[in-house]
Amino acid sequence: MNAFLLLPTPxxxxxxxxxxxxxxxxxxxxxxxxxxxxxxxxxxxMLAGCMVCSAAVGLATVMVLTFTSPVRLEARGLTAPxxxxxxxxxxxxxxxxEEAPTPRLGHR
Length: 108
Prior knowledge:
By secondary structure, the chain is an all-alpha fold. The chain contains three helices and no strands. The chain has helices spanning about 10-40, 45-65, 70-75. It is elongated and about 85 Å long.
C-alpha cells in the first residue's frame, strides 16, 4: 500500500492546495506566452503556450485521479470494503457426466 494514501488530512489538504496553485500558475504562464505570441506574431511562443497549457491540464487530471481514487477512500475508511469478490460463480453449473445434480444453494 502506498504511504501517500494514509497521510493525515491537513497534510493531504496542503499538498492538494499546492498542486492547485501550481496548475493556476501554469495556466497564467500559458496565457502570457500566448499573448506575447499574438503581439509579436511568433508561432513558437503560441506553441509553447499550448504546451504549457496541456501540461497544466495533465497535472490537474492526475491530481483529481489521485486525490479522489477509490483506493484512497477505502484506505481512509470512507467506503465499505467489498464483502464478496467480483466474478462469476460456477457452483450452479452441472456438467453432463455428473449422475444427479446436487443442490448447493439450499440446506437440503
